[in-house]
## 1
Amino acid sequence: MFHTLHPVLLISTFVVNKILPRTAQSSFYIVVATAMELATEQLFPNSINKQVGGSNRTLQEVLQIVLLGFSITCLILSGLFKSESDTDNKKPNNQIKNKNLILKYETREYKNNVKQYQIPVYCGKADQVAPLSNATSPLHLHVEQTLKLPTQDIYKPHFAKLMDDADKLSFTKNLFHVPENITYMCGNSLGLQPKSLQAMLQNHLDKWAHVGVKGHFTGDYPWFEIEDFLVDKMARVVGAKPIEIGIMNTLTSNLHSLLTAFYNPTDTRYKILIEESPFPSDMHAITSHVLSRRINKSPEQVVIQVGAKPGSDIITTQDILDTITQFKDELSVVMLGAVHFMTGQFLDLEAITKHAHQYDIMVGFDCAHAAGNINLKLHDWNVDFACWCTYKYLNSGPGNIAGLFVHERHADASMKELPRHGGWWGHARKTRFTLTNKFIPQRGAAGFQCSNPSVTDCLSLLSSLEIFDRAGIDALREKSVLLTDYLVLLLKAQKELVGEIEILTPSDVQRRGCQVSVRVLKRDMDQVNKDLDSRGVVCDEREPDVIRIAPTPLYNTFQDVYRVVCEITKVFSK
Ligand SMILES: Cc1ncc(COP(=O)(O)O)c(C=O)c1O
Ligand SMILES: Nc1ccccc1C(=O)C[C@H](N)C(=O)O
């Protein structure tokens, strides 16, 4: 049928079908047909009613038949050329369009964040779709779907305010003392003070002043069971069951207790795997165990380290798994930093644990930079043990009491299976005061306690955990992903920063928390940090050349992030 049609008819039909929605096309052809009939009447007024040739039809009737045929042909053809506007009406839900932009989404599951995000896989003008280079982030999705803005607005100054206005968690900032005239981005080192703490501590001091020793068993928070007020809340923050949580000591001393229990060197299995540049305290703890156990091996023979490939700062999961496989018969324990203090890389705890368990290797993590930062699932990921401090993202104050996790499956282990540093607070509560000399540990992580905890420490932690309960760790993580995504996006967009800085932290949101580590390439890092400080931006630095910036969802805003990037840009523009 095609080859009999006039090319003009084909082209005009194609154009009309591309431009008009189907509903408008039929009206268009009827108008064209009527216009042609009217034009014939005007041009040939004398011939219009005459009979054509030998037939008994007038010219007008013949014209009407021809034009009707023309309209029907055009309508048939319209089915062959799909209109852009028609696809708009039946828009598949993985595609978003506005006047200038077409974005196509692909659903990706972020198992560690639980949530499913749709990631834009290409972006461009409707007729020249191009791969999207830097729009692979949940922030873009949030913008398109929640704020209904074109993604290019992300770089405009009013955007940060729009994000803050849309933030369901904006109420939490006011629950903290935020230093005046400062943009504080240092929750990775020390969290801010909850406003509720002062009254809590004052009540505690008043109670102590008024009732003395009776305070152990009286008042709102009887000191004898003070940790009970924290355990459930802490369990929710790190994805654990209450039986798996201990509130005690400090991070490094908890790591020592856990190594005593879980590091069980034998003649053949005595090695410990740790990352190449761990926080020094972790390495000190491990090497001191090698010496104190008198296992007749040097730390060099015991400690295996896995690092990033040359030229990279990031350790690949595959390299960790391969190292475990390589030393599978000699490894006793894998002990890694869940979020690396320097690079901000978040390891795949679940994959590492699963892999090591195949070879009966115990797996533990230092969660100093992960607790309160990432919505951990320590129970579900089957981690054997973990420890963390509470003064960073958990805002309990400098040097405060720490957390410890021991998986439920070890809850009833005997002292022989999991030796614990005995102490009366870890002893079964009912007989704690019978002063028996036989140590019977409490079930679960509580059995790792030694001494009665500092009540001021516990209340300090409680004031922050109450805020976590109000906000919810999943919602906080969701905001954190957007905040940090925004920071990275803005940093990458500043032409003044090109060649001046390099971002170390993984770009994949699954593999990082809120912290972004930036390497200062040409300038003196210490001077850069001082300049930021003088401009009211508080970050921190790690030798030799890294600045750490941690937008913290509890008290940082999108406007804070915008301001920090402006100040960083000014420092590097000098
Ligand atoms: C990863 C890591 N591990 C261990 C520590 C030491 O913690 P603490 O002094 O509370 O024992 C820190 C920070 O101080 C840390 O960042
Ligand atoms: N507790 C401190 C006391 C003084 C100075 C720093 C700290 C830190 O916590 C540093 C942090 N652990 C880090 O990731 O570098």
Note: The longest helix spans residues 22-43.
## 2
Amino acid sequence: MLTVTMNPALDHTLTVAEPLRKGEVVRTDDAKFDAGGKGINVSQYLTALGVDAPATGFLGGPFGQMIGGTLDEEGVARDFVEIGGRTRLNTTVLSPDGEYKINHDGPVVEEGDVDALVERVRDREPERLVVAGSLPRGIGADAVDRLAGAGPWDTAVDMGGSFLGRFDGSYLVCKPNRAELAEATGRAVETIEDAASAAAELRERGYRYVLASLGPDGALLVSESGAVRAPALPVDVVDTVGAGDALLSGFLAGLARGDSTADALRTAVVVAARVVSVSGTSVPSFEDVFERRERVEIRSV
Ligand SMILES: Nc1ncnc2c1ncn2[C@@H]1O[C@H](COP(=O)(O)OP(=O)(O)OP(=O)(O)O)[C@@H](O)[C@H]1O
Ligand SMILES: O=P(O)(O)OC[C@@]1(O)O[C@H](CO)[C@@H](O)[C@@H]1O
């Protein structure tokens, strides 16, 4: 499995003891940096789950170097195209009144960089590709179709709702959340039944599976056999950054092991529960995740 992150981010997570107040300085000694961007997170989670999942995409500047160094320390294989622009820094503030997240748009990437990335992917001949996260400035949805169509691999995508209905190719799976389902289909998505109808409509546009993440309501899987849902596991949530990436990683790890789609969905929910229990996009312990999946109940929708 090879992941592509076209717009990686160094994730800076700051925990503050008091709610933020306009015009006031808040101080903290609790801050950490994680290598981030959705595809990179998937590589980190999959590697920790025992699935070989090198990361590629674009990296540049000092934050790009920090991301590369972190991946090396964690033993996550990487093969990025170096760009002239500067990889972004995204900030999360965890305060007693909730979670604040600010994502930078990222650098401008040139068309020639996309050509180099397509070549990089071709050279590695992955069995499966995962393209995840926002696109940096200068890059359109056609770059994703190019990557997916450059070889015989099947491709998973996790991108904004405005893209999900616009790809030309056919894809293995996409992982929208509620807002992305609504944006991709133009439907209101409030109830689980709304999500199932929207996911079924989205599936018709070229996905074998639609894996919808529903926050504390768990996840929904729509395939040719219909829709099933797995409620979330009750856990103490530290923050939900990376939760969707964890869900997708668990599902892909299940498929890579040859598990049934129901078992892959169960694993996805266990992996996501572990990730929401730690701050930022750091990798928690995944010990026992495959055994613990039996605790996840599958319901038909
Ligand atoms: N409060 C929660 N309690 C337990 N599990 C949760 C909670 N919130 C999220 N999860 C788990 O994480 C999965 C993904 O969460 P969510 O729907 O928030 O993803 P997302 O919006 O794609 O997140 P992100 O874009 O931040 O990665 C859910 O399907 C669920 O299994
Ligand atoms: O701006 P994008 O590319 O949509 O999302 C980037 C991001 O929020 O996604 C990950 C969590 O899913 C973080 O590592 C990272 O900061």
Note: The longest helix spans residues 261-276.
## 3
Amino acid sequence: MYKPKWLASVGFEIHLQLATRKKLFSGAKIGVFEAPNTSVAPFDVSLPGSMPILNREALNLAVRGVLALNCKVAPVCQFDRKHYFYPDLPAGYQITQQDVPLGKDGFVKLSKHLDDVDDTLVPIQHVQLEQDTAKSIHADSVSKILLDFNRAGSPLLEVVTAPCLHDEVTASSFLRKIQSIMRHARVSDAKMETGGMRCDVNVSIAPIIPSSSESSKASKVGLELPRTELKNLSSVRNVVNAIRYEVQRQISLAEKNETWTTETRGFDDKNGKTFALRDKSISEDYLYMPETDIPPVTISKKYVNEISDATGPLPDDLFVMLTSEPYSMPIRDARILLNLPYGYDYYSTVRDIISRQDGQSKKVIDESLRALPTWIITDLVGKLHEHEIEEDLFYVPPSQFADIVCFCSARKVSRLTAKALINHLVVTPSDQSIANLIKELKLNFIQDSNTLDVQVGKILEASPKQVQEFLTGKQSLLKYFIGQVMRQLRGRGDPVEIEKLLKQRLSETLKK
Ligand SMILES: Nc1ncnc2c1ncn2[C@@H]1O[C@H](COP(=O)(O)OP(=O)(O)OP(=O)(O)O)[C@@H](O)[C@H]1O
Ligand SMILES: [Mg+2]
Ligand SMILES: [Mg+2]
């Protein structure tokens, strides 16, 4: 059996933008999507005399994040100054938490069923609340950097893991789990594409030393070689590709007996390679000192309990709930739904609307609820994906979606028509009721036998060759006939009725 010779270790430093509208200390709005430099308070650009005031909502969200990662909450929230000099930080220091991080010693659970990797606990070393910097925009000329201070001073939650992940697949499951936890806890939208979640990935390798004695099978891991820190990874896919490349790069250097130093590297997603950015072998001295302009805030047990009680269920609890009575969702469906951004929110909103439908029988409601996960994870996601509107299920309003599912279960529209309606709402959103849309687009279900029989007759008449083949035993052609009739009726016919009428006519032909 092949035995690997190297053990890779990966540790994450993750920054999450908190879901608050105001900055951490200045009260200015967080203007990430506004025109550059329009959402800036004097404190955000360190004007003399401006003073910080802690945004209480940011602290609440941070504590919620700390609890969601199973960390111990510090008894006090206090800040330190971390000094470094860069144009995006006009004060010359970042306000962060060095001495007493808001949370420490937590873990994130990964499981086979929900996360599709071996059951693992990923240790979280610490979680801290800190300020974001201004956004640097590298203009055409190398020497020119544009700065947008709308982001400066926004609250970030920094999550640091132990270097306990050993392959890129588990690492990507971990990142998706963090996103899912933070979204369910309403702490952050954790969107990597828009900078809501950013991560630095530390990667190292260590030799695996095979056991020398026959009796002991356990091998040992030698000393790890210098780690590299990968930055500017803008998607989970890039993180996976960067780790895979970096581990292989370090292994091939090690196998050629070449050495390297601790450094920060970037990742070029066009050629799939990492490249050196700067040396990190001499650790920078940040001259940490206490931030004395912000008085420490005591964090009482009562306050922590209140935050904990107000936090909704997290993905692991929801997974257990959805796969048990009365939801009884298949494991795969629950996993896909919970891993869709705000998938559970959408599902539970639509589910509530369906359950409250007055005009529907219990049978229709039960059938709609049973079919709902598939409608969302296959049909809605498929259509959104097709039209490149990813990650936003709420693009189709839940009330309209609930009506489509119910109309289909009540056999007022066919499955094909229901899909066409979803497509219609994705392409041309409208606030019309679904009942009106069906009328306007003439999509009502045709169950009337006479109308259907006329179409069945036409199709059989137009396909003498296939009818002959069917009568001589090619039973599979029945599906072909149903498909042809459906096509003629633009998907609105009742397939059960069509099949019945086809069988009747074909057996009559056989008797002749
Ligand atoms: N041998 C290792 N292999 C891989 N990752 C490691 C290793 N040792 C530490 N790490 C990871 O490196 C990260 C250390 O982050 P931390 O912010 O504490 O230090 P830093 O990156 O040196 O400091 P800073 O980013 O503030 O300059 C953690 O995510 C940790 O898991
Ligand atoms: Mg770092
Ligand atoms: Mg750090």
Note: Residues 13, 200, 229 surround magnesium ion (ligand 2) (CB under 6 Å).
